[in-house]
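Example noted here:
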Amino acid sequence: MGRPAPLRSIPNADHALDCPDGGVVRRVGDAIEFRDRDDRLLIRYERGALVVAPAAGDLRLVSTAGRVQIEGAVDVEVLAGRDICLKAARSVDARLETRSEQPHTPIVRVDAKGVRVSGHEVTLEAHHVRTVANIVEHTAATLRTSATVLETRAREIRILTELLRTEAHEITQEVIGVLETRARRIRSVVKETFTLTSKSTTLLSEEDTAIDGKRVLLG
């Protein structure tokens, strides 16, 4: 077999390389252009910049036995006039590779198990955020919630904790049915006035009942 013929240089626009299908490769100024049989631009190379622009149809980068890698020295930007779709047989990762040692590598992973977002700090900003799930779990050393109005609606609320502390300027509770408290001991400390108003009051003790004060007024 003989050696392949070397590529011919294109000195100017008057010298072009014709392709068997009617396409042409020509030099235009400092650029090299690849055009189809209808003189539509397909590829343009100029001063280190390469532009691939099919005149019609799709642009496919296919590797039947290896990877397809797109690498930019500065940035890589993807623009779409309609949609951007990513499909993978196993997983899709968006990972930030930095030289600095970070406790958590920022990553967004989508696989058969679900979607995972991890990083040293994750910020979500939106006008409206809606979460619909069968079970929502939060695990944190400290969980802080700040809001102008916090509204919770549930059929049943369970709080399991070793210590429950509530600090507020005022607390108002409205219960239509029964308000019941069960405890081994109850101690209420009021700095000024304690007022109990009810239609009927029953105080029942199995053993002693003590009322102590400077003055005890009944009636």
Q: What stands out?
A: The chain has no helices and eight strands. Residues 8-59 form one domain. The radius of gyration is 37 Å. The mean pLDDT is 85.
